[in-house]
Amino acid sequence: MTPHFDSGSPVPRDIALPLARAYVAQLDWRLPWFRDRVAAAGGPPVDGSVESLDALASFAAARAHDPGPVTAEPFWFEPPGHRPDWTEAGAEWVEGLAAVVAEVITAATGARWVFDSDPRYVTGHQPVLQGVVNTPQRLASLAVADSLSGRTGRPLSTLVPKMIDQYARGGRLADAPDLGEADGPRAAAAPPPAGPVTVEVTPLTGGPWDVQVSLPEEVEDLLGAAAYASLEERFAAVPGVRAVVFEDRDVAVLATDGLDPEELRRALDGVLAGLRAAGGAGPGPAR
pTM higher than 0.90 for the full model? Predict the structure, then answer.
């Protein structure tokens, strides 16, 4: 199955749409496959509870570099040398975890699978749960990556309830068809909610990056695609910031000249406030 879904460079719609339908169809067997594989390996229970998700994420992370064969080629897989650097078999474990995350969210919300036909969004040309800010696959991938790196800032036991609480049936893609139905019109993007967009700054040690900056999960929707695409450049222009790299849609690492975290937070919040006041204007294409 080539190409795989890639949020950084969406595959063409005519390829991505049937791929998205195939992904949703395979969830019927992927979840029991994951449950059986975890049980056979003596892993934690796969019981559909929020409380079980963190242990399952750690279990999948321990197998992210599994050299074994795959049951079915994963739908999300970066080639060797890219991030994340797990194997195809490891990626299949992560997709099993994503199937569990999807089950928990849909059981609580009734959210339906739809196709995001807008390539400007990070989820463009991918299957998404309508009304849910983040995708099960991205949530699972972040949890596994955090477990592998020793970070604990984004556990599934925290993020998944947040996705459920923020579920908005009438939000973006409200009129998109189910992936099992014929393709049809989709709703225009909902206007971003009012209020400030703020960051969290966490000091880092033992490497070239001295702070991690966490933005709201829905930052691209809040700012608009063009403004979001300009964030790396704008953050790097803050006095005292030497380098910026976005590790994910809502997480960046910065190298600074020893800036105080609170001072840096205020400066970055000012950048975001300026973008909001300008109506999301910003140079460059979507990330």
Answer: no
